[in-house]
Amino acid sequence: MRTQVAIVGGGPAGLLLSQLLHRQGIDSVVLESRDRDYVEHRQRAGMLEQGTTDVLRDSGVGERLDREGLVHHGLELRFGGAGHRIPLTDLTGRTVTVYAQTEIVKDLVACRLADGGDIRFEAEVLEIDPSAPSVTYRHEGAVHTLACDYVAGCDGFHGVSRPAVPGLRTFSRDYPFAWLGVLADVPPSTEELIYAHHERGFALHSLRSPKVSRLYLQVTPDEDLDAWPDDRIWTELAARFATDDGWELREGPITDKAITPMRSFVAEPMRHDRLFLAGDAAHIVPPTGAKGLNLAVSDVTVLANALAERYASGSESLLDAYSATCLARVWRAEHFSYWMTTLLHADPAADDFTRRLQRSHLDYVASSQAAATSLAENYVGLPL
Ligand code: PHB
């Protein structure tokens, strides 16, 4: 069995890469360890930079995104009992779009399969040989080897691709918090996202549709989900979003509940021989600012262009530049995500001096056009 590009992992990075390569006439096989239903239903963030929606649209999977995605022009920072709007579009000329990652995955799977794309679900990758190159995997009880020209490791933080790269240098930061995320069948209580800083902890009000709200609460990393019955979640959210003018949070049935750990992580370089890492396989950001999916999209866009040049002209110059090109953007997003996280969360170990600095920083971002513009241009995404 042979293909041009073996793609390990059928999340948004692997599926989009397969789609981008297909548009360039390059064959690929996607190997995904989970089944289709699992892949299409895992809940992740849902805030897309304008550059991300441009890539999805240009690659032919923008139809439902254009119909159902909610275009946003600003966000709210809420602290000290009051809201402060950051007018993203006025400050940057760009917009962001709310459209869940899980919907992008559904759109990509449907599009690839309709075009005769090869996605093998429940295929467990056993070994990646970055030099041969080849991928050995088990599918329906039999072991197969897929020979290829290149391997793309798009199998997330816990995948097998990164361990196949020898001599990686890694950088990481753990945080003393996690997010408890819920999906609720209730119309959002806000039109724009609310990022709330409160002494009880951070809270985020996001949305999925005019009828579905997405909400998050800062909790401790070892938090027990069973300690959070629905009424405790609503009470805590209401306390953290409370304003002096009596803003009200609408409540409704919670349909999904999960705890997301927070971590910053980068592995360098993102390439070894003919194996290229993309997305969470190479780097993780804390979810504040929703950069994870957007970074995965920029990685695979760079990789698809580099492979297209290689097959069109034989030149490997863009492939040779892949890791450095991606890492420049990755580190900018790492800094922004770390910055948003420390700006907005309540660190239980912080001393009074640190708390005063944090409040001054929030006041500055809320009142200075220069500071707000810095937040805004990172949030909407710097040009690819
Ligand atoms: C989400 O809608 O899931 C979301 C939005 C913005 C974030 C993180 C998550 O910063």
Automatic annotation (TrEMBL):
InterPro entries per UniProt: FAD-bd, FAD/NAD-bd_sf, RIFMO-like
Protein name: 4-hydroxybenzoate 3-monooxygenase
Alphabetized UniProt keyword annotations: FAD, Flavoprotein, Monooxygenase, Oxidoreductase
Coiled coil: none
Gene3D superfamilies according to UniProt: D-Amino Acid Oxidase, subunit A, domain 2, FAD/NAD(P)-binding domain
Organism: Actinomadura rudentiformis
UniProt keyword Metal-binding, yes or no: no
Chain ranges of the FAD-binding domain: 2-337
Sample GO molecular function, one term: oxidoreductase activity, acting on paired donors, with incorporation or reduction of molecular oxygen, NAD(P)H as one donor, and incorporation of one atom of oxygen
